[in-house]
Design a protein that fits this description.
Elements lengths: L7 H16 L6 E5 L5 E6 L11 H12 L2 H6 L1 E6 L3 H10 L4 E5 L1 H10 L12 H4 L5 E2 L3 H15 L4
Parallel strand pairs: 3-4, 4-5
Antiparallel strand pairs: 1-2, 1-3
Helix pairs in contact: 1-7, 2-4
This protein binds zinc ion.
The site of zinc ion has 7 residues, from helix 2 and helix 4.
Amino acid sequence: MVVKDAELPYLRRCVELAARALEVGDEPFGSVLVGAGGTVLAEDHNRVASGDRTRHPEFELARWSAARLTPEERAAATVYTSGEHCPMCAAAHAWVGLGRIVYVASSEQLSSWLAELGVPAPPVRTLPINGVAPGVQVEGPVPELAEEVRALHHRFHRGER
Ligand SMILES: [Zn+2]
């Protein structure tokens, strides 16, 4: 399955949430959880500026879905996200049994952008989602929106808000 035009609004919302995170001093990542019928169930952006560096939106959505959705609803849901899940979030996604993932920018793209900016490597190894959660259906990157996400990361790491 590939990313359909009808899915682009969810991905655009992820980019808006990433921009919102940047405005409030957080790293620019945003994610949206969509149910089988296309309804947005929950959304969040990165909140690591709180000091808790596990506050990634994909992790929050995994825990939200575990608390509120049935296993069947979780399996039928899709998580849209501005950046590919990190290993922590990929593991959480798989442990709670969520369905498909669609990301705008891959972890590989993000790593190369951060390297260009001289940002030190993160403390957790960068891996593709399927390297952590082999059974999850994953789509991305989405070139139509990747440049916007790259620009947000450049602004964050240059201290621009
Ligand atoms: Zn993460």
